[in-house]
Each structure stands twice: as C-alpha cells, then as structure tokens.
Amino acid sequence: MRIAFFVNSIEGETTYYTTTSLALAALARGHEICYVTPGDFVLRPDDGLLVRATTLSGSKPKKPETLLSALKGEQAKISTIDMRDVQVLFLRNDPSEDADKRPWAVYVGTNFGRLAAARGVIVVNDPDGLALAQNKLYFQGFPEIVRPTTLISRSIEEIRTFIDDHPDGVMLKPLQGSGGKNVFKIRSSGEANLNQIFEVASGAGYLIAQDYLPEAVGGDIRFFLMNGRPLERNGIHAAFRRVPAKGDVRSNMHVSGTAEPATITPQILAIAEKLRPKLIADGMFLVGLDIVGNKVLEANVFTPGGFPEVAAIHGVDFSEDVIISLENKWRIQQLYGGTVPNRTLATL
Fold it and tell me: Start and end of every ATP-grasp domain (predicted)?
C-alpha cells in the first residue's frame, strides 16, 4: 500500500508524535509512505485529483530521528501523485493549529479527504465524520451520562452563573483548541482576574465551562479506541495516565505532563462502550479518549497522540496494530470492488 499522512506541516513533525510511529510501522511492514500538507492538493480541470507529496528516496528509515531527518533533508523528494495511486489517506492534522494564522487550511483535510474518498482512497478518520468534529461542540453529541456538566457560551454573565452553581470550581477553555492552550481552573465567580481570563480564553470564539472533577488532580487517562473498540493486545490496553506538572491543572503532554501506567477498569471499558455507537456511525477509526473518574473530558478524533508513551511504559508499539487494520480495510475494499462506503470501511 501507499499511505499518505496528512499533517499541518512537515517542519512541525517531531520524533515523539504518534504520526511518526505510524509511518515507521508502515515502512516496517513493507508499505510506501508520503507526507501531505494543506497546500499540496491539486484539482485539475479534467476532475483529476493530484497531490504534491513528500516522499523518501534511498533506504527505509527505522528510527524516528532518521525518518524526520530524511523528510526534512536531501532524501526528501516532492512528487506529484494521482490520488488514485494512494491507497490510504490518514488525516493526522490539528485544525486548531491553523485557525489563527492559516484559516484557509482548517478545512482542507476534510474537504479534499471527501474528494479522495470519492475516488476510491480509504480515508481515515472519515472526512464527513471529522467535518462534524471541527470543534469541541461535537462532544455534546455523546450520551449525557459520560460528559461533565457543560455550558457553552460567550456571555461572561452566563459563565459567572455557571461558576456559582459549581462550588468545586469550573474548567474554562476555548471551544476551538487543543494541547491545553488557554485552559483555566476558576474557583469562584469572585476571582479578581476572571475578566482577564475571559478575554484571553474567548479570543478564539466560544468558551466551554465544565464542572471541575476532583479526581482530575491525579491527571486523566488517555485511552485509545480503534474501529470503535478499545485498542488492546494480549491483555495490554493502549492507554496511559497523563499526570499534570506540579501546580498545573492541565495534564497535556505539550505542557509538561508526564506519562504513567494506567489501570483500565470495567468502569472505563463501560464508558468506551457507551461512545462506540456514535464513533462507528461517524467513521472514527482511531480515537483518543481523555477520561477522569466516570466522565470523558474529550474525544480526540483528529490527531490523538500517545503511542510512544504507551510503548515506553508497556513495551508494545500499537502502531503496528493500526497499520494491520488498514491492510484489512484495503483487502475488504478490493474484495467488494470499492462498493463499501468510506464511512463504513473506516471502522470495519
């Protein structure tokens, strides 16, 4: 297979990204890989869809450092490829990273992903499903029982009232965002700097206010689902606990959170099962859930990360499992002559 990884930028890719692990796993299993960024698609007058892809020449890298050095160095080769010669387009960009400086790039993955799927390319996660999940409002479509009590508003008066109704405090964050940016814990509506926090957090639009879960002091659990089910091998789950740095309420790895082993309880498995119907219906192939206690804080569907952390803790590289699943989808597509809809194929 030829697998194209769609990312925000090649320059921004790092050794600890899950995308890097996935690319190495694909190479190890004998597949071709290429990287694609928002400015690389071409739709010609004859309706041909092409992409200017960064490919590798020479020997296949086996280490993250070697792979990224090759992608960013002289080994990299830019080739114009007909999308029909790509078997899988793996959408691994974070739209929120482009929202401020490159707003034109935010919807490129989903828009051109649809065009690719229409031409027989397996696109994961399904672009129509991802179009529904461009911001955290998507999360409100999951069962209420698994979600913290939530207010979405741009009104500071509404937010103050919500804070007053939750004596344990409230987490405040932008509706569009990731990586723990502009996430605040508000203890009371009387905080002297609430107006300043509101101005900072609301700069990108609507805000989410959620009741603070006391269990969050110990961090959250990043728990991976593939094809709507827990990603697991030989009794080991693709999961880890994200522990916040001292004095920080955020457990994101981008803001100095650390990874520790996580215990996957029947309660956590039951939570995942409650989310499964919607994830399958929306064609969400690979998802990372952030779980605190009996609640899901977020469902990461664009570029869930953490495979290197899981591998470091458990010695299991789940990237191989993901590539094997893509191989199975390709076989199904060939068996059925491309008649299985992409959204269905994405979670088979």
Answer: 136-327
